[in-house]
Amino acid sequence: MNLKKVNPTGQGWCSMTHAFKLFWTHYADFTHSSTRSEYWWWQLWNLIINLCFLILTIALTGSTFLKVIEHADTVSSPKLFIRFGIAGGLWLIWRLASLLPRWSLEVRRFNDLGLPIWVSIVLLAASIVIWFSNSSFLESVAFIVDIVAFIFELLPSNALAKFTHK
Q1: H helix intervals, the chain
Q2: What is the per-residue pLDDT across 139-160, written as a single tens digit (0 to 9) for each?
Q3: What distance in Å separates the CA atoms of residue 59 and residue 65, rounded to the nearest whole number?
Q4: Largest Cα–Cα distance in the chain?
Q5: What is the mean pLDDT of the chain?
Q6: CA-to-CA distance for 139 and 145, rounded, in angstroms?
């Protein structure tokens, strides 16, 4: 399986800014592949953006943020809930806006490893089922699946192609 790399340099790496651009410009590209650097640079971007939302939440709610985390049932300020709603709403918009591009990037990363698209579909379906379940067993399964996916994402290009294609 010889999939075209999205990285136009043809090299096995890309810069952090280029990875950000590729994430958004190839938001629905499920056919090509992505390099490890493209994938991990985006993960760093995602971490930075989520930390910004955490900082925004703390800035809007002040020191009561920690009180809410410790004793959510004892804090009942309407202003505080509005502030949490604003921060949470913005974070939710971000998560929904980046949902398809994140899945597309994962599929392209799995393509780069030589895995078929159904592997990513199974992982996504499992995540959705587990998200809506209330089972500690399923949460344990999700943790194991996440570790396996993490290990796959660390592997170099075409590392699994010899096992998945004849």
Answers
A1: 16-25, 36-61, 64-70, 78-97, 99-113, 117-131, 136-154, 161-164
A2: 787 778 878 888 888 888 777 6
A3: 9
A4: 62
A5: 79
A6: 10
